[in-house]
Amino acid sequence: MSGDDINADRMLEAMANNNQPSTINQLNGCTSKEELDLIMHIRRTILHLDEDTTNDRSSPKKDTISTTTATSLSTATLDFKIERAKQKFAAGSLEEAFYECWKIPQEQRTLEIWKIGGECCKKLRVFAVAQRWFSEAIHVCRSNNTDLNVKLEQARIARFFNTYLTQYPMIDIRVDERGKGIYAKRVISPGEDIFTDIPLVHAQTVDTLSISPACAICTTSLLTPAVYFETTWSRIPEKLQRQIEEYWPHITPISCPYCPFELYCSEACRQQAWDNYHKILCPSFNPETTELYQFCANGQIIVRETWNSIFSPMILAKLIAMIILNVVNSVQNGTTQNSIDLNYSHKLQQTDDGPLEQAKEIFSEFISSGDATYIRTIPRMLKIMKNIFNHSSMPIHYEINEQEFTYRFYQIACNAQSFSSPTYATTIYTRFLSNIRQRDRTGLYQLLQTYLKGEPIDQVFGGLFPLQSSLNHSCDNSCEIMDCQVTPEVAGIKVRCKHQLKPGDELTINYVDLALGRRARRAMLKRAYNFWCECQRCTFEGDDAYSCTECKTLSPIIDNPNPNLTNGNIPYRKPFPACSRCRNAWYCSPTCQKQAWKQGHKLICRDWTKERSSSSAN
Ligand SMILES: C[S@@+](CC[C@H](N)C(=O)[O-])C[C@H]1O[C@@H](n2cnc3c(N)ncnc32)[C@H](O)[C@@H]1O
């Protein structure tokens, strides 16, 4: 090995360990540690190959790493190198082909070289590098190239979901005009559990927060007798209270030491909340968050429609707090991780957006789609978020403006999935009753009859699940979502197959109640998820009895059947008869009905009111 080789090797090793940006630039645009690692690996492989091929002109022994300094190549050398990269790629020698591409100075790499380099990395499963090479190809290409855009998107998805797809080899993620979707790679049978997922960020829904307390981290119910019996508790005689407590499952909620707003089941959960988001959001340190916590605790009737379901504004605040703390931890190298004082000794460098952009990447896969003007109708929440985060005491500056708020709002609105720990409030209550039935000899159950209020309301959380959020909707969904204790400490969801799936079939869930008619389903999907459903069921159902679902003919106009009521200028029509089984399609004639049946109505015709519709309604 020449002296140049050894120096280049040392430099590469040092950089691979250190990833110093200044030295990286010397290496022909090799910008990430992953890229360096790949090159290191390739170099080792090539050197190893070279030991058996000493007379090979292309041997890296002769064509050393030192040739990668950014001196321009002559046209003849460039053509020769391009040709060699193409040949190696065609021969399937991916590592060598990438090495050839990489040796060409960045400014001289052609569209073809960026593409070959990207393909090599994709096949070698180094997706971050593949993503960069394909985006450079798009940059060089200038015109809109669909093929390259698809390649870039695939590399980006592979990069993000690589771990999941390795863990769950029976599924694949592909992209079409609806965005990402999950597809079966083998036959999957009804009842089979396909994958589990845990949320990146979650919060309890505002409508269950005050009536069904739960651990803010592991979501397990923290229903105590005092909360269950509510105002009645103080009227229950003390002796009876003690008996109730004796039979009630052991629950000791822990609160944040600085504020009354969050409850946890254990010290470990409390610490996790503090490290992940609460040190930014605790009202004792950031008084601006008091309004947000109060807003959630009250259920805020006025804007209930926006926030009452799976989407609590707390998810949005936590998501931003997590990004901020991620930057803090990455820059300060974890020094603030376990500390519970907010002593950010120095404000982080405001000029360098790198760590902030990197931290934002964790949430970059969640699609965001919706009507931007709607945000103007909920100005109060934008103001609350601005007050919390556009604040001089924040360790980094993360600007919350209308655009950022809108983007994050719809990210959560489009993707939030309801879930909770299978230790529900009803589980606690059932255990209490069963303890009494099994152990009590004093007739407590009889005594309690006047105080018991029936089953409690279960806690519900909304969360952003990285893999589950890639599932598209169908009104005839093939899969369903179920609550699941993914590990003893972590609650999440599992996706279970409902209808048999063949390789290539899409895994879908239902975002809305399947018992609703087509018009209502489509309207809800448009409003909440910003798409017009064209699924198989929507295709073979109608909106109402006044037009034939098959031939679209309008039904005959008739006289007003009730002259006491007026319908304005809209004519009265005679309803067409409905399909007797599903009652969701209407036909002008038996011919149309037969035709529709053959076309596809038979695939979706069933009594939808009997379908379990709540399981995965987002
Ligand atoms: C939870 S995400 C599903 C995954 C999404 N396709 C992606 O790329 O991340 C929900 C969004 O996907 C799109 N989507 C889901 N189901 C769809 C469908 N049946 N038709 C059209 N778009 C759909 C809508 O943009 C919706 O807001």
From TrEMBL:
Gene3D superfamilies: 1.10.220.160, 6.10.140.2220, SET domain. GO terms for biological process: methylation; negative regulation of gene expression, epigenetic. InterPro entries: SET_dom (IPR001214), SET_dom_sf (IPR046341), Znf_MYND (IPR002893). The keyword Zinc applies. It comes from the Eukaryota. Residues 215-282, 548-605 form the MYND-type domain. PROSITE patterns: SET, ZF_MYND_2. Keywords: Metal-binding, Methyltransferase, S-adenosyl-L-methionine, Transferase, Zinc, Zinc-finger. Transmembrane segments: none annotated. It holds the Pfam family zf-MYND. Residues 150-512 form the SET domain. One of its GO terms (molecular function) is histone H4K20 methyltransferase activity. This is Uncharacterized protein. It comes from Rotaria sordida. The lineage of its organism: Eukaryota, Metazoa, Spiralia, Gnathifera, Rotifera.
